Amino acid sequence: MKLYRQTVEDFRLYSGVEIEDLDAVREHNSRYSAKMRAVRIISASSVSKRDLENRLVRKGESEEQAKEAVQWLSELHLVDDRQTARQTVDSCIRKGYGIARAKQALYEKQIPKNLWEEALEDYPDQTERIADFLRSKLRDPDDPREVRRAIDAALRRGHSYGDVKRALEMIGTESEFEEEY
User: Fold this and answer.
1) Is residue 157 within 8 Å of 97, Cβ to Cβ?
2) Which of 57, 59, 103, 180 has a 20 to 30 A CA-CA distance from 124?
3) Rounded to an integer, what distance in angstroms lies between the CA atom of residue 52 and that of residue 44?
4) Residue 79 CA to chain centroid, in angstroms?
5) ∠ at Cα 29 (65, 52), nearest 5°?
6) 22-44 vs 63-75: helix axis angle to the nearest 10?
7) Which tens digit of pLDDT belongs to each residue from 69-109?
8) How many CA atoms lie within 13 A of 117 on its CB side?
């Protein structure tokens, strides 16, 4: 049986000692295992409480132990949904994604919806970044097929058609596909 050092210390175990309550030792070790797995997960990336709990359960921890580990990390201020939401939105802004893509990222991270509005309230105008993106995609701004592909690429990045249209106007390219979008 593998034991964490903390379990050995808490139960004052040493070579030759007789364990009176093996189930208590196993339970303690299992709870500690959930906490250590949670620490490894949050050290790799920022996660929401719900996402962390789900990951722990998928990795084999019981729901009770997963909740306890998430609560423990919350008390230590190591898991914070509000901060994770801000980090997620900041990452989307740096990557040049639109608000729709940022919302998708928040959904994927299982951030509670009541925190979305706060995280998205300072989302900057992306028109200039969209224009730069479109310029990089358009070798021939007069080719309708190429313009359509560039528009579709910008829409896949989460930008609204209205924002893409403003960026097209900014770079001097007209879109004849308005009815489609």
Assistant:
1) yes
2) 180
3) 12
4) 12
5) 30
6) 60
7) 999 999 999 999 999 999 999 999 999 999 999 999 999 99
8) 1
Q: Which two tokens stand for residue 3?
A: 């034991």
Whether the CB-CB separation of 129 and 166 falls below 8 Å is answered with no
Q: Could you tell me if 3 and 19 are in contact, meaning their C-beta atoms sit under 8 angstroms apart?
A: no
For the question of whether the overall pTM of this predicted structure is more than 0.85, the answer is no
Can you read off the two tokens belonging to residue 180? Answer: 């489609």
Ranges of residues in the chain with a pLDDT under 50 are none
**Which residue in 170, 131, 166, 126 sits closest to 150, CA to CA?**
131
Q: How many helices (H) and strands (E) does the chain have?
A: 10, 0
The first and second tokens of residue 6, run together, are 């903390």
